[in-house]
Amino acid sequence: MTAGLLTAWLNLIGSWQQDRWSDGGAKGQVATWSFNGGASWGQTPQPFTECAQPFYRTRVLQYERTSDPWQSIGPDGTAYAVSLPLDGDFVRNGLGTAISHDGGRTWVNQQDVDPLLARTDTLNPADDKQSVTADPANAGWAYVVWDRLLDFFPPCPAAATRQAARTAHNAPTQAKRSAPAVGAPAATPCPNVFTGPAYFSRTSDGGRTWETPRQIVSTGPNEQTIGNQIVIDRHSGVLYDFFNFIDATGRDNIEMVSSTDMGTHRSAPKYVQRLATTAELRACFCGVVYPGDETRPLRTGDIIPEPAIDPNTGQLYVIWQDGRRNGFQNDMLLASTSTRGGQPGSWSAPTFVNPPNDRAAFTLAIAVNAKGQVGVTYYDFTPPLTRPDVLLTDTWFTATSGVGLDFGPRKLIGGPFNMEAAPNARGFFVGDYQNLAALVPALDRESGDQQQNGQSGSDGGGGGEPSSDFVSMFVMTNCANTGCTAHGTLDGSSVGPDSTDAFSTRNSAPSGIEKGT
User: Fold this and answer.
1) Do residues 302 and 288 lie in contact, with contact meaning Cβ atoms separated by under 8 Å?
2) CA nearest to 31, candidates 65, 62, 72, 76
3) Does residue 75 have a cis bond before it (omega within 30 degrees)?
4) Other C-beta atoms lying within 10 Å of the C-beta of residue 500
5) Any idea what the Cα angle at residue 179 is, between residues 67 and 183, rounded to 5°?
6) What three-state secondary structure class fits 326?
7) Measured between alpha carbons, how far is 409 from 185 in angstroms, rounded to an integer?
8) Do the beta carbons of residue 303 and residue 227 sit within 8 Å?
9) What's the chain's average pLDDT?
10) How far apart are CA 434 and CA 515, in angstroms?
11) Smallest Cα–Cα separation from 100: which of 75, 130, 80?
C-alpha cells in the first residue's frame, strides 16, 4: 500500500491504494480529507479505475488497476492528484491526473496524460513512479515527473550487464504474463536491453490541460531513472527534480536537474550522492529483509531518494536508504544537505538519521517546516524478535533542532505492528513511500502578509525534540501478532487483491504544502 498527506491551511488530503494485487497495482485509489486538522476524515474514490464509476456521473478512466497515488495542493487551494493506471495484463497503461477544488471531497477533469500500449513480450513502454508538485508561488501551475521504461531497438549494444528485473519495481516479470499479442510493434527490440528516461509534463491552467509529455533526462542501454520528485524554491522559482540514476551495472546514484523557467528548459544532470542500497547486492533486489533471513524480503523504498526544501532559504535536503553503515545487513537512513542550490561539491557528507544500532530503517518521508527544522518519519525493527511469524515494526518521527542535520530524540508515532501480516507483493509491502507534511507560511490573500496558517502556540520542536509543526501519514497492518494475515507471493504471482489499513498521526495543526504518495 501507499499513502499520502497534503496540507493547505487546515485542509488535509491523503490517498492510498485500495485492494492491492500481489503482482502490481490496486483495484482503486482512495482520497481521504479532513477540514479540522485530522480530528475526523471523509473518503472519496478517485476517478482512475472502473471500480470508481458508481461514485461518478462523468466517465472515469477505464482502467482495471492503479498504483502510486500522489497529490499536491497549490496556493489557491487546488489539489492535483496523479496515478499510474493500468490493466491487469500490463499492456495498456497510462498516467492519470485529476483535480479537486473542494479540499479533496470531489475530483474532476480526470485525464490520461500519457496513454501507452506496451508490447506483450516485454511489457514496454510503461510509466512508473510519477509524482506531482504544485507550484507554491504560482497558482494554476503544477508539474508531473516520472520514468518511462522503453525497449531498446537496433543497432543493439553489447550483451546486457544488468537483469531487466532490477527495473521492474511495479511490473511483473514477463514469465508470469500471458497477454494476447495485440498492438505490439513489428520491430524487434534488442534482447534484454531497455532504457528508462525521465519525462515531464506541466499545467498552467489549474489542471484543465496538460502539456504533451517530453523527455528531460536521457538514459542509455540498461540505464534508468526512478523516483523523480520536484521541489521548488518559492522565492527564486527554481525547480529541482531529484531522481535515482541507475547505471548499466545496477549502481544507484542520486542525481538532479534544475530549471529556472518553470520547466521550459533544464540543466544537465548533476551528481548528488551515492545511493548504496543493500538491494544492489541481493538476488531479491531488496534493501531490507527479516533480520538474517534473505528468504523473507520486504519491499521498501530502497531505490527512491526523498528530497525536501527549506521554504524560507531554499536549502536543499535529500534522504535515502543505504547499507554501508551496517555492513549491508539491511538498509539504514542517510541524509545530506546543500545551501548552494545543489551545485557539485556543495552537498554535505552523509549523516545518520536513525540510531546506529537499528536492525533496519526504511521507507522514509522528509519535510522542512517554516522554522527550518527537518522532520523525518520511517519504519524500523526496534522491538525484539520473538517468533519467526511475527516481525514487529515501529513507525518513528525525528526532527532537527534547527537548520541542518542534527537529528534529536525520536518519537514513536505508530506500532508495533506485524510486518508479516502485510500484503506480500515480491516482499512484505506497506508502500514504496509514505508522507510527511510541514508547516509552511502562506500569503494572506488580502493583506499579503505571511500567516502561520492558523498555527499558534507551537512548541517548535526546539532542542531536537520532535516538532509539533509536522503531520504524518503512513500505513500499518492492523495487528501486532498473527491474528490477521494478508495474501500474496514472494515471486509476484497474482493471488490478490489484498488490503491493509491506513493510519494517520497528527503532531500539530496541519498547514503548508507537501507531496502525497
Assistant:
1) yes
2) 72
3) no
4) 25
5) 95
6) helix
7) 56
8) yes
9) 85
10) 10
11) 80
